[in-house]
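QA checklist item 7 of 12: single-chain prediction sanity check.
[x] sequence parsed
[x] length recorded as 312
[x] structure emitted
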Amino acid sequence: MAERNNKFARISFSDMREMVKGRKTDDKTFFLEHDFAMAKGYNSVFDRVLNNSAPFLVEDSRFILLMRGEADVTLNLMNQKFHKGMLVYVGRGSVAQINRITPEFWPYAMIMGDDFLNFAFDGRLPVSFCGRESSFHILLSEKDMTMLGDMMRIIWDVVHQSDFSQYTVLSMASAFVNYVDWLRQRQMASPLNERTREREVFEQFITLVNTYCRDERRLAFYADKMCMCERYLGTLVRKASGITAKEWIDKAVITAAKVMLCHTSMSVNEIAYRLHFANDSFFCKYFRRLTGSTPSTFKAEYDRLKNVTANV
């Protein structure tokens, strides 16, 4: 069977332009250039992402400073609660699903494409952004929160000047990223961040699962990658997370399937083939067992919610 499209959909800069098109917005809350964007507070143009409870793939680097409110997010399979006083980094390749935001949710956000970042750092990104971690968050001190907020505000003011210099924005954004890198390295060196053997193994396992889940559902594959026997890996993962390794693999596969159902033109049959199921019947049974819904029903409900949001 030929594959028409085996890529995850991404909420890219072109997607953001489509989301903005025809929607009521203004430069007081949103700024968008070729490969750089900023958001100040909550903007209704993103209702499509926030209201549909479906996962999406991030194709750029996003820095989110939470000034007020809370958000419950599933990020790379992990359920996270983000709140006021946090800096959240979501990097390229992350899979995110926004489950809930509070009414007072108010972020400052900066979004940078690959070209922007590579040009700003001449291809040599700070260490926090070139390792195996595709996302992290930092609970900020009041001083650091003020510092990052001031930097965001200055960049926001600069990009809203009619004749602003792109080189100035590049320099200021790179200073912001370097500051975040310094905060992250300080956080990692803190004794409070000391990780157990189980936690280290679990984090490496989740990284591998996020990378290979579309091609491999066998625990033996991941154990081999980590040079461990299956039983030992399974024991460490369960100790660290309270969930079996097989359950984590299943969660990743279902998330991948949901992204393809909601954001590509692939049929159920093609998705089953892409995820290496014997046929679409096996895939449908697997999906229904883990979600309580068939793939087609899930897709139809997503489309219904998307249309409701688009007509608001």
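[x] summary fact logged: Strands lie at 30-32, 36-40, 56-57, 61-68, 70-75, 78-83, 86-90, 95-101, 106-112, 135-139.
[ ] second reviewer sign-off
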